[in-house]
Amino acid sequence: MTTAGTDKETGSRAEDEETAESRPFRLARLRRRPHWWGVAGIALLTTVLQGALGIEQYRNFWVGAYDLAIFDQGIRGYADFGMPVSAVKDVHDAAQVIPGYGHAFSLLGDHFSPILALLAPLFWIWNNPVVLLIAQAALFGAAVPSIWLFTRRALRRIAPERTAVFAAYGVAFAYGISWPLQMASQAGFHEVGFFTLLSAIMIERYQAGKLRTATLAALALLLVKEDTGYVVAAFGILLLVTRQINGVPLAREALRRYRLTGGALVVGGVAVAYAVENWWLPAFGGQRGYYWYYGQLGSNLPSALWKIVSDPVYAYHLATEPGVKVHTFLLLVWPLLFCCLLSPLSLTAVPLLAERAFSSKSEHWNLDQHYNAFLAAILFMAAVDGVVRLRRLAPVVRARWFPRMRRPGPGFSKRFVQVWIAGILVSALVMVVQAPMPLRQIFSTGPWESGPYVTAQNAAVAKVLGGMGSNGGCVEADNDIAPHLVSRADVLMLDAVPHGCPWVVLQTATVSYPFSGPAGEQARAQWLVAHGYQLVFSSNEVFVYHRPTALPNQ
Question: Residues near 197 by Cβ (< 8 Å), separated by ≥ 6?
Fold first, then answer.
């Protein structure tokens, strides 16, 4: 469906570059390409911006033990050549552990994310949870080359090479500052960085016609989280319906390989997800069905799917109420000018969207969590593919519905892409400066200055660590303060149940999970005093209590 004018504009040079890009990745070859430094610069900029946002949140005690301290403890276990055990999960979420389970609770019983072991060497370099925030930002940045390559390859089918390159830089930049990445950086560290990178590689290699590499990336996604098996299955469906790559029909033998691979991924993805959720997690102490948030649809996945199919009206209301679900969905697609909805690549996002839309957990609907970042690379690349399809559909629509309309000139495709990328960039910038998006905070001095409350929290941390000495010790700490202690102490998260640690840090200035208000932490303070703890630090509603070891019966 490519017009003759477009074919002349792209020419043999584009075909040669297409062949070169389809070859296996070589760093030396990339260095010889003229855009290596530009792409690396945007990747680095993404890393710096998202990393700075994460560090700024950490410095202000806005990143909690849920989930930074949990990941820190677990990955630190890998670094010590042991199991990824988290004392925070083991103690605070005791209801998640199978009754009678005789070992410390491993993160492998919480979520299936063995890929996190790849980050263990970072703790040999720097013993600080901030290293995880930087690593996540670097993973976000590492997806930039795939997004850039995908965009240039797609857009030069409808526009001149120079325009396609310019648009590729624009899309990569817009991705790097996109609001889903902002929210993920604000929320601390999660496994989402690996998913973003691997999903970008998977789709870009699929577009390049490199089925083997795309399949390997899809298989690697299975190591990110237990539910990514459904994303892999959706990618398998995409392979099943694929008839052509970059406008070139697949040969019969290639078509057969795509069908076989797609079928294997569909079956294998669902099978792995089922096996992990029903066998692997319980084997490591996790309760089967602990994360099942779909009781309104049924007690398990088959019953939920049947309810959706048999009662679509009920399913529609469940997926769109409350209205924040629709609001979140619109915020995902309108900055991309809705073009992602025109691409079959969006099939790979359907499991993640459905998983959240039907969930009874409000965090799955809201903006201020990391869940939206799982969709970032997929939707950006789908939007690029969608705008190509939209442009190629225009002559068909004109010929069928507007036959008397004058045919656009040879420069129309160039202007079409330029207008689209301008819209993408404006939308991305709007989502930076608009509240409640957090990235704009790093450009002002206020969040980087330590106010009295932050100073008090830092002083409390210093008091505990100084009192413990180099041997460390056990401390129950407020959710916001715990990550600042986890590298040098055995940290439990402060909750309503006393756990007997000699050190306790709490604050009553703000509401901190799992307490619903300052009254809960005040009650804990009264219990501590009544049971032999002494107040050894107090400043700006931040308190440190210590129990002398010489107390009897302790």
Answer: 139, 140, 142, 143, 146, 377
Instruction: Look up residue 90 and give its two tokens.
Output: 């083991």
pLDDT in tens, 84-121: 999 999 888 888 888 888 788 899 999 999 999 999 99
* Three-state secondary structure call for residue 357: helix
**How many angstroms from the chain centroid is the CA of residue 514?**
24
**31 pLDDT tier (thresholds 50, 70, 90):** low
Name the one residue in this structure whose structure tokens are 């992602």: 340
Cβ-contact 140, 46 below 8 angstroms: yes
3-state secondary structure of 491: strand
Cα 284 to Cα 104, 109, 277: the distances in Å are: 9, 4, 11
Residue pair 374/192 in contact (Cβ under 8 Å)? The answer is: yes
Report the run of H or E that residue 456 belongs to, with start and end: helix 452-468
The identity of residue 334, as a single letter, is W
Q: Which residues contact 476 (CB under 8 A, 6 or more apart)?
A: 491, 492, 493, 494, 498, 499, 501, 503, 504, 505
Mean pLDDT over the full length of the chain: 89
186, 438 in Cβ contact below 8 A?
A: yes
Residue 268 contacts by C-beta under 8 Å, 6 or more apart in sequence?
A: 229, 232, 233, 236
pTM of the model: 0.91
pLDDT tens digits for range 243-281: 999 888 999 999 999 999 999 999 999 999 999 999 999
With CA atoms as reference, report the closest residue to 270 among 246, 235, 315: 235
